[in-house]
Structures are given as structure tokens and as C-alpha cells.
């Protein structure tokens, strides 16, 4: 994916030489060398040996400005439409597989007929395995490679479409992976098309595609600021000391907000989760948040290590037709014992936020989700890890809350904080993790500092432990398939 690219950083002390994506070159002049209609050229003065640029016509400047604005608006609108449609398609796949929209139920697939619980994950995984076996026999350009500043390559729309729908099918039929990768990929394809139509140069093209990956996520989960932070913290990583950095921040935020607004046509601005009321009990709550930060420092890196090892197994393409269905069958077996395991983690998070659990059940959730997700990855399946990480972190928060005698309202706050903490560890993106967890649940304002404390303690501990190897402690260094 596009998450691991390092954005070029400019000189913080020379604002005159910071290029405006799609508008100016490194010297601050309007880019026109690639436009045959440009009349600007350098010519020697009479009686002098120096050269100077002719003034750029106002109409040419206006045309470039209009094209950049159109590119930003089209990218946001198309990303929102794609995210909204894929959300509806995912629900349709769930209904087809299990006979009901199981992600909206805290019982998971517990009320689904036995034959559907066994057959749906295997059939869906078999279909996805055949698709991936076909795709991976050839070189596939990913979003990450298309954003490579040294050797940028073009995304193949058909390949991305097949891959995205394979992910939707396998997640909708019960495998334990996230469904956020599919809208990111297709939104990136739409941004690539917009960049080509608007004749964008590489800096603007890269910014548009990166912002579209975050906008696709924002549209699916109704998280506009988390979507912008995803693009900024995990993909572009702009330098805020430069003009170009602030331009990238503005573009990503605008695209994400517009995509989210477009998706309201289908999700009606409803939050993904509706947690029980949150309450606090003074210093006891803050003490539990501190303990949770320490617990997250153990669980988060453990989940990261397990996921990374599972992805390195990487079965050969001609084996995927049986390895992926085998993984689906194993997940189906786990789901017979823990019906909340299937899917991207939405069922489990909904249960954690709306039900008072015993410590045994919370611990079972944590282990089962970690195991099911690693099995899905080991089989060769592709998908996101954002929502599985949330479910694992939420289970950690619920477990600590029950063990320390927290009230029901306090436990809900700890679930949200734990979800953000583990996500920050697995994605190396603390700001995105905080925004994502809060926008998904929309809790009371008192939860915001609790989440910040938990994530801050975990992140500070991680930075201290990995200070000898800054590569592992860097923001936005999450391992990717």
C-alpha cells in the first residue's frame, strides 16, 4: 500500500524555493515547460549576455489554478462515491453469505444457521483465492509503488478492481481482516485518472493519490479527520515548516472532508459505533488509563510481531486456491466458539462497547481475534489491519477494566482508549489512531484526554525502547503487504 512512502522534505529556511504542487517550480515560477501553449521562454537581452523570463500571461495562471482546484474537488467527490458504494456492497455480501447484516449485531454469527457458518467463509475464501492466484502470477503495481518518487508507476484499474472485490468478498463472508484497503485502492485509481485528466505534475499527482487513500477510508467509516491524518501521517508525512507541507495538509484535509460529505448520501452521517454512556470516577479512571498504556505497550508490539510474521509466510500464487480456503475454514472453526470473531472487527467492537463482559470473555476475544487475523494473513489473504487492531486493543481495555473493578461507563472509556493504543502501535501512527477511535465512537469529551494519556504513555514507552533503532520507532512505519 501507499502507507510507507517518505515524503520529500524541503528547506525550512527558504520559502521562496518551495514548489506549489502543480503550479510552481523549485524557483517559485509557474511551471510551463511541459505545456506547449506556454509562451514563456528565456531570450538574451539586446546588448547583454544575460537572460530573463517573459511574464506569464494571466490567462495561463488562471487556467493552472482552475485545473488544480478541479483536481482536488473531483478527487474528493469520487473518493466519497466509491467509499459509500463499497460500504453498501459489503453489507450486500454479508447478507448473501449469512442471510443477515451480521456486523450490526453484537451476537455476530451466533444466530446464523450452522451450514452458513461453516460454508460461507470457505466459499468466499475460495473465490478470493482464485482471484489472487490469477493476479499474483504477474507483477502488480501497488499504491505504494505508484507514489515512488524515483520510479513512479501507473496503477492498473482492472487489477485494482479485482483485488478490491476479492477483499470485500473474503471479509464479507467471514474472514478476520479489515475492509478498508479496498476503498483506498479504488479511490487511488480514481485520483490517478483525475490527475491525468487535469494534467497534474508528479508532486500534485502524488498528493492527490495519497489524499484519496485517506479519503476512501474516511468515506467508509465516516471519519473525515482520521482520513486526512491517515494520508498525512502514513503516506505523505509532510514537513510543516515548509509551504509545500502546508499545501499538502490543506489538500488532504479538503479531499477527506469532501469525500466524507459525499458518503453521507448513503450512511446519513451515522457513527460506526454507538457505545454505552461513558462515566468517570476521578483519579481511579486516570490511574486505569495509565495502566492501560503500559498494557498496550505489551499487546500492541505483540500483535504487530504476529501480523508481520504471518504476512511473511506469503504462499506461492499457484497454492492460493487451497491455502486461502483453508484459512477461511480455520476461522470458521474459531467462530463456532467465538461468534464475534468473523469480519473486520466491527462485531467485536460493538459487543465490547455495548455489553458488560466477564474477564474470561474479554481475554477470549483478545486471543481469538489475534489468532483468527494471523490465520487469515498466513493463508495468503489480503486485507486491512486497522479494525482488527481496534478489536484487539478494545479487548485489552475491557479486560483491564474488569480486572480492576471499573464501572460499566469507565470500561467503555477504557475500550476506546485501548483500541486507539493498539492501533497506534501496529500502524506507527498515534495521531491517526486517536482520531480514528474517537470519530468511530463519538464519545463524551472527557474520553479524549483519557485516550491521549493511554496512547501517549504507550508511544513514549515504545520510543524509549526502540531509541537504539529509530527505524522501528518512526511514525508511519507500519509493516505493509
Descriptive notes:
There is one protein chain. The chain contains 17 helices and two strands. It has helices spanning 58-98, 114-135, 143-146, 157-172, 181-197, 202-221, 224-236, 243-267, 283-313, 320-337, 346-354, 359-378, 386-403, 408-427, 430-441, 447-465, 470-473; strands at residues 42-44, 51-53. Strands 1-2 form a two-stranded antiparallel sheet. It has two domains: 60-267, Clc chloride channel (Orthogonal Bundle); 283-468, Clc chloride channel (Orthogonal Bundle), CATH 1.10.3080.10. 54% of the residues are buried. The model is unreliable at 1-52 and 470-481 (pLDDT under 50).
Examine the coordinates and then state which fold CATH places here, giving the name of the CATH topology of the largest domain.
Answer: Clc chloride channel
Low-confidence stretches: 1-52, 470-481
Average pLDDT reading? 85
Series of H and E elements: EEHHHHHHHHHHHHHHHHH
Distance between the termini: 7 Å
The amount of helix comes to: 55-70%
State the fourth-level CATH superfamily of the largest domain: Clc chloride channel
Largest beta sheet: strand ordering: 1-2
Seen as an oligomer or otherwise, the chain set is single chain
Structural class computed from helices and strand pairing: mainly alpha
| Biggest sheet features | 2 strands, antiparallel
Proportion of β residues? Answer: under 5%
Shape: globular
CATH architecture of the largest domain: Orthogonal Bundle
Number of helices: 17
Pfam families: Voltage_CLC
Main location: membrane
Biased composition (Basic and acidic residues): 1-18, 26-37
Protein name: H(+)/Cl(-) exchange transporter ClcA
